[in-house]
Write a structure and sequence with these properties.
By secondary structure, the protein is an alpha+beta fold. The protein folds into 4 domains: 4-89, Uridine Diphospho-n-acetylenolpyruvylglucosamine Reductase, domain 2, CATH 3.30.43; 96-214, 2-Layer Sandwich (Uridine Diphospho-n-acetylenolpyruvylglucosamine Reductase, domain 3), CATH 3.30.465.10; 217-329, Alpha-Beta Plaits, CATH 3.30.70.2190; 333-447, Alpha-Beta Plaits (2-Layer Sandwich), CATH 3.30.70.2740. Helices cover 36% and strands 20% of the residues. A 7-stranded antiparallel β-sheet has the order 15-12-14-13-17-18-16, sandwiched between helices. Strand 8 (163-169) and strand 9 (175-179) form a beta hairpin. The longest helix has 21 residues, at 312-332. The mean pLDDT is 95. The structure holds flavin-adenine dinucleotide. Flavin-adenine dinucleotide binds next to strand 3, helix 5 and strand 10.
């Protein structure tokens, strides 16, 4: 519990109902979508940037740790208050501040849910490309915190590519803005890139200005089922080689397909090694031509069955399985450890085969989802954290998966961040001097080390 005089001061800033410290409330904010847990001393739900600035002034003076939090869907323990202190939940700051059709940008508060922004943009004939599979709940502040990606990343890139401006509260309560509303802006050091992906360790984002695009007039998806992974990988290589830039190029392995089918019964064939789900968009004629070419490539590379969407309802149906994947695998076992090692696309199949072999070696059920067009794998280890013997095997398997990714010239995370869970593995990809440099940058912005302490930067 915080000292009563400090608690009183914070209650005064956010209002009585936005200061939570009952046992039940604290437990509700003690976990996120990772397997980590720690209980905070208080949860604050501010509604303005100015309130956050006042909170930070108090926290800075009193040296109280502050963990910023959006929806808590991160998979790396980024919102776990390991050192206690305050969880600063931005979910009440969920407004759309401005949507400018002419200049094609939107300004949202950091707690705005990604899908809300998508829906508002759509009404104006525009769209916001980053689409993490968690988009129905994850917030723009959290997306910036993790530099989130999503299936559409192959064509449209990740969150950083779409941020024009940020409003940020620093550790001592100062409020700064970075960038603006223009698509071109090289005024000063690129502070947007500094804060994007910094996982709440450098400042608290309160407002995000994003670039929007005109909504493509047509979208088509192609789903193809392969008896062998090699056929799927040859298809990926040929599509990329053909000059088509698909919006999304997703892969699900046999384990994931079967778990989806167990749960959703949508008619996916169970005896396949790999399934590809590919999306193209643009003018109807171009879209149609690309979908036909992709269908031909899939068949030539040995796909058993190929389905092409012809309407938005069919489109929706094809994506139902993929979007429900995380939910359905979680029904199989109580704990799902979801990693996101990323390798060059040409090493993807080797990575997947390696993950399957590691699963066999440690007698673990591992399903693999991949944003195949980006080389971004999501091995999902289905386990039960309470089973201590099995958990030891999980820990060994995770180490080997990271080592494999690095050996294949890849990295620890393509989109989920390092947070708490992957902190011990950072030396595999960043040397001492690089990690020291990150700590030095943090110490300039947060000399007292109160912002999300214990995470990937510093001790
Ligand atoms: C089912 C499922 C599917 C997912 N699919 C994807 C996917 O396709 N692509 C992908 O990239 N990720 C995915 N994720 C991971 C996660 O959803 C993303 O990382 C998302 O961006 C987190 O948003 P959030 O609002 O939940 O943030 P949180 O989890 O609350 O926070 C994430 C990090 O950002 C920091 N943070 C949060 N808000 C702020 C703020 N306002 N200012 C500063 N720091 C802040 C936190 O301290 C934390 O370090 C998925 C997760 C789940 C559970």
């Amino acid at each position: 519990m915080l000292r009563e005089s400090v608690a009183q001061e914070l209650r005064h800033i956010v209002g009585e109902r936005n200061y939570l410290d009952s046992r039940e409330d604290l437990l509700s904010y003690s976990y996120d979508s990772s397997v980590e847990e720690a209980v905070p001393e208080a949860v604050l739900l501010p509604s303005t940037t100015e309130q956050i600035s006042e909170i930070m002034k108090t926290a800075c003076r009193e040296a109280i740790p502050v963990t910023p939090r959006g929806a808590g869907t991160n998979l790396s323990g980024g919102t776990i208050p390991v050192n206690g202190g305050i969880v600063l939940a931005l979910t009440r700051m969920d407004g759309l501040v401005e949507l400018n059709r002419e200049d094609r940008y939107a300004v949202v508060q950091a707690g705005c849910v990604n899908l809300k922004l998508q829906n508002e943009a759509k009404k104006a004939g525009l769209f916001y490309p980053p689409d993490p599979a968690s988009w129905s709940v994850s917030t723009l502040g959290g997306n910036v915190g993790e530099n989130a990606g999503g299936p559409r990343g192959v064509k449209y890139g990740v969150t950083r590519d779409w941020i024009l401006g940020l409003k940020v509260v620093l550790a001592d309560g100062r409020i700064i803005t970075a960038g603006g509303v223009t698509t071109k802006n090289v005024t000063g050091i690129d502070l947007i890139s500094l804060f994007t992906g910094s996982e709440g360790c450098l400042g608290i984002v309160t407002e995000v200005t994003v670039k929007l695009l005109p909504l493509p007039s047509c979208q088509r998806s192609i789903q193809a089922f392969y008896p062998r992974l090699d056929g799927a990988s040859a298809t990926v290589a040929r599509i990329i080689g053909s000059g088509i830039v698909p919006v999304a190029l997703e892969l699900m392995d046999r384990v994931v397909v079967n778990l989806i089918e167990d749960s959703a019964r949508i008619g996916l064939p169970r005896d396949v090694e790999g399934t590809l789900l590919i999306m193209v968009d643009g003018e109807e004629e171009v879209c149609q031509r690309q979908a036909e070419l992709i269908e031909t490539i899939c068949r030539e590379e040995g796909a058993l069955d190929v389905q092409v969407s012809r309407s938005s309802a069919e489109e929706e149906k094809l994506w139902t399985g993929r979007r429900s994947a995380f939910g359905v695998v979680s029904r199989k076992r109580p704990t799902c450890v979801l990693e996101d090692c990323t390798v060059p696309v040409s090493n993807l199949v080797e990575m997947i085969r390696g993950i399957v072999a590691i699963g066999k070696k440690y007698d673990l059920l591992i399903g693999v989802l991949a944003h195949a067009g980006d080389g971004n794998t999501h091995p999902m280890i289905l386990t039960d954290k309470r089973d201590k013997e099995e958990w030891k095997r999980v820990e060994k398997a995770v180490v080997e998966i990271f080592q494999l990714a690095v050996a294949l010239r890849g990295t620890l995370s393509g989109e989920h961040g390092i947070g708490l869970s992957k902190k011990p593995f950072l030396p595999l990809v960043m040397n001492d001097d690089a990690r020291k440099l990150m700590a030095e940058i943090k110490s300039v912005l947060d000399p007292g080390g109160i912002l999300n302490p214990g995470k990937f930067i510093g001790p």
